[in-house]
Amino acid sequence: MSEGGAVVVLIGAPGSGKTRTGKRLARLLRVPFVDTDKRIVAAHGAIADIFAAHGEPHFRELERAEVVAALAERAVVTLGGGAVLDAATQADLAGRRVVQLTVAPAAVESRIAGGKRPLLKDGIGAWTALVAARQPIYDRLSQLSIDTSRQPLDRVARQIADWLEEQ
Question: Hey, which of 39, 101, 103, 136 has its CA 20 to 30 A from 142?
Fold first, then answer.
């Protein structure tokens, strides 16, 4: 494992289980867990409120600052689904251990219900379009991809830990 910077970065579609898997993985690896979206919320308030008051570009600026800080920490880091849209973040992920979590539309529908995600307020159709647009970036940046649709997240975390040990 590397001495400095993120131990592993989890990316992927909204609702794919990045946060829940990241917490489990951090426990397995005995390192801190950093969720950039949670840090934004702690410092600036709800993401939906940031979008409503200041727009997506302002949110992306806040997100970029949190990504830079998180990647410098020796931790399991999870990025918000859209963080990879930033070219500088893409460059920062080059050469790092990046795992993509995927999820099928049928499995994610109940996970994204409730309206906390501003880009998904129109439901599964919005999710499908958003993921289709981002998928080439997720694929290019990740060295490992795991579908979380039908397996316990403890098992997903174990698969990632095993993969890291092999690196």
Answer: 39
Rg (alpha carbons) of the chain, rounded to whole number = 15
The reply to whether 143 falls in a domain is: yes
Domain at 56, CATH number: 3.40.50.300
How is residue 147 annotated by DSSP? E
- Digit-coded pLDDT (tens) for 128-139: 888 999 999 999
Lowest mean pLDDT among 29-33, 89-93, 123-127, 149-153: 123-127
User: How many structural domains comprise the chain?
Assistant: 1
**Domain that includes residue 148, residue range:** 8-166
Residue 3 lies in a domain: no
In a domain, 1, yes or no: no
Residue 4 exposure: Cα atoms within 13 Å on the Cβ side: 2
Cα–Cα dist 167/163, whole Å: 7
Write the pLDDT tens digit of every residue in 59-78.
999 999 999 999 999 999 99
